[in-house]
Amino acid sequence: MDPLSYLFSLEHFGIKFGLENITAIVERLGRPDRTFKSVHVAGTNGKGSVTAMVDAALRAAGHRTARYTSPHLTDLSERFVIGGRPVAHDTLVCAAATVRDVVESLRFDGTLGVQPTFFEVTTAVAFELFRRAEGIIKAGVPIVVGPVDPESLSVIARVANERGATLIRATPADAAPFTLGLHGDHQRANAGVAVRLLEQLTARGVGVPSDAVARGLANPEWPGRLDQRRLPDGRELLLDAAHNPAGAAALASYLTAESQRRPLVFAAMRDKDIDGMFRILLPAIGAAVMTRASNPRSADPGMLADSARTIAPALPIAIEPSSTDALAAAWRMSPRIVVAGSIFLLGDVMQQLGLHSY
Predict the structure, then answer these.
(1) Residues 251 and 207 in one domain
(2) Which of 25, 29, 70, 132 has the fewest CB atoms within 10 Å of its CB?
(3) pTM of the prediction?
């Protein structure tokens, strides 16, 4: 089995909590994760946007960066970005082959009692790819926290205190002096986190002058997030990876500000809070076309339509078996449409239309 096919064969192993597998793999690889310094960006929403802005600002300041995110839109290489560009196919294949061979040897000698997951192995691939990337972050980076609910903040503050970490609050006002390249009011909060994080890096010897911060926030590369695309024939589509109520709220806020309500092409995974998304998103659109993504976890379009009709009985709703048919149906309603609900749906649509993610 070729290395990339091997990676994708692990997807059906799902999610496994614990660090035993990844620790064994990186130990056998020679601890590539210790050859560079890292910043971890965590949270339900906004992780990718913050990461993209920080990455762009660091590169604008002349630093070499590597970025690992998931999932991808159209190509696995999008998860592994070095110097602002996805890694080359051959480079990715080579790293994947190295990790595959290590996993197989660990399985053979009994060190790994269970098969590692897709995420565990792709994380090891990222470490292997990035071991040559220049380190950019000094040790002891504090915790920068954006707007969170009081209960979450209390937990974060307690853990930070227990571990002797400095807690720094970031607000949308921290990004007020800057023009943002990512659309949506919610990006102001994400940018505030990026600004405070970059301030901390500068204080610790990683020079990021204000003009580099400005360029980074104005020109991040993060496709599929309020991502407006125009086709050669003039038709338009807004691609957004909203896949939970918080993401739906950000998208709905953006759509509500427009003068005309767009038709929505929608698909979602079965395990998502679909009703929660619909309650927020459906009032902001003019019609909906329910479909499925090319992922086995994709919800049945008929079920989506039933849920939507319960929540918005007056909204025109159609059902199409494929994203290709759904796009055609939506464009018959309007030359300007929106596609949302699942990053897998966005990937399908971008491949069908020949749209590039980078």
Answers:
(1) no
(2) 132
(3) 0.69
- pLDDT computed for residue 107 by the predictor: 87
Retrieve residue 203's tokens: 């204080």
Q: Tokens standing for 230?
A: 């125009």
Q: Is the same domain home to 162 and 256?
A: no
Structure tokens belonging to residue 142: 């504090």
* In the predicted structure, residue 140 carries a pLDDT above the cut 70: no
Token pair of 140, please?
A: 């002891």
How far is residue 258's CA from residue 236's CA, in Å, rounded to a whole number? 14
Reported residue count of the chain is 358
> Is residue 337 scored above 60 in pLDDT?
yes
pLDDT value of residue 228: 92
Instruction: Say what angle helices 186-203 and 210-218 make with each other, to 10 degrees.
Output: 150
Nearest of 162, 167, 193, 164 to residue 178 by alpha carbon: 193
Instruction: Give me the CATH number covering residue 310.
Output: 3.90.190.20
Task: Spell out where the chain has E strands.
Answer: 66-68, 80-82, 85-86, 143-145, 167-169, 227-230, 236-239, 263-266, 287-290, 317-319, 336-340
Amino acid type, 69: T
Q: Residue 137 above 60 pLDDT?
A: no
Domain hosting 318: range is 227-353
